[in-house]
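Sample pair:
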Amino acid sequence: ARVATQRRRLDPLPHPLTPYDDLIVNFCPTGMIPTKAKTPHVPVSPSEVIDQACEALERGAAIVHLHARDGDGAPTYRAEIYEEMILGIRSEFPEAITSVSCSGRDFPEFERRSEVLELTGAARPDMAGLTLTTLDVPTGTSQNAPDMVIALAEKMIAKGIKPALACFDYGMISAANMLIGKGHLGGGPHYFNLLLGSRYSVPATAKHLAGMVDDLPDDSVWSAAGIGLFQLPMNALAIAMGGHTRVGLEDNIFHGFDRSELATNQGLVERVADLSETFGRLLATPSHARAMLGLGPPAAVLHRAPAGFAR
């Protein structure tokens, strides 16, 4: 396994006089939108994703959130592609936390959205994205009907996969609180990704982020992300507020506000890691992040051996 190069806490628990816990960096390399035509830096093939994920983990990321693409670079739900990526990452970083997409933007059927949740053995993901309500996006609508959200959540819990709760607005947090109260999201701690700055969702301001955090249940671990040019400000606010960060080309393909330079995943991770360390927060190791998120130990890795995908 590769050895991380950044300074990290050796003690799995934070020092009692440290105001904030170590920073969990959630690396989102690909997403569904960026294409090679828009930026040559976005990883599309499994080998590209594995290489860039390992670079991010070396620099201090703890979670890798995966989206799959087919041979033409288009988004796909196919579990065997996720399997290849997860096994490739775990062969280098066995402790890495892997999260997968169950997006309904292109694939509305439950069977396709949930296929990745059938992966077993070393290929079973630790977490899976769960968007709590329907969301308008610039290209259309991401459909997340209440019965679909509940069905996905219940399958995640049944498979031992923690939902990564994606919230683009206050109403999504209200939906999460309701589902938690009804027992659909399993036990805590609950992990929330707060995503601000999308065209049809909550604005990316300190006031709005603070309001979203205030609405979260007590037993929560939260991460903030900004869409597009808002990525860095939201990452910086999260670091200062004691939250965690989500970073990568999935949410933002430019390095600066003037949009003159295309970003790279390595550069985006490096920037947020440097910012956190300058601020005084160390970066959480995957094993420390597992403890904070209430995740069990990773599945044994058999060096990219077949993991028993059950259709």
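The longest helix spans residues 265-279.
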